[in-house]
Amino acid sequence: QVQLVESGGGLVQAGGSLRLSCAASGSIFSVDAMGWYRQAPGKQRELVARITSADSTTYADSVKGRFTISRDNAKNTVSLEMKSLKPEDTAVYYCNADIWPTMWRTYNYWGQGTQVTVSS
Fold first, then answer.
1. Hey, what long-range contacts does 54-57 have (CB within 8 A, 24 or more apart)?
2. Inter-residue contact 38 to 18 (CB < 8 Å)
3. pLDDT tens across 56-88, in order?
4. I need a surface site. Which of 8, 20, 55, 78 has the fewest CB within 10 A?
5. Rounded to whole angstroms, how far apart are CA atoms 4 and 80?
6. How many CA atoms lie within 13 A of 120 on its CB side?
7. β-strand 10-13 against 114-119: which pairing, if any?
């Protein structure tokens, strides 16, 4: 059973910083792309940042230059460093990963979500 467990959300003032972390655990053969999505109230879930196993990164235009995604392949973890936070960054942030529990096929997994609230 594979699980993604997030940590690091919270309440911060505009202009502040937060760091989110996500750890994949369980029966894991390998991990492909990992990423962060967010969903604000009344809005669709959207991609924030994504990183491949080769460390190629993709960012949403709204977070470029403010957020940095990184991963530790040895620990199967992914982190999101968020700086210069804005009230519009307020959302539930979800960790996402493509994981091979065995060598036979890959599955897409989601974490339970962590709340980030940015006050103005």
1. none
2. no
3. 999 999 999 999 999 999 999 999 999 999 999
4. 55
5. 14
6. 3
7. parallel
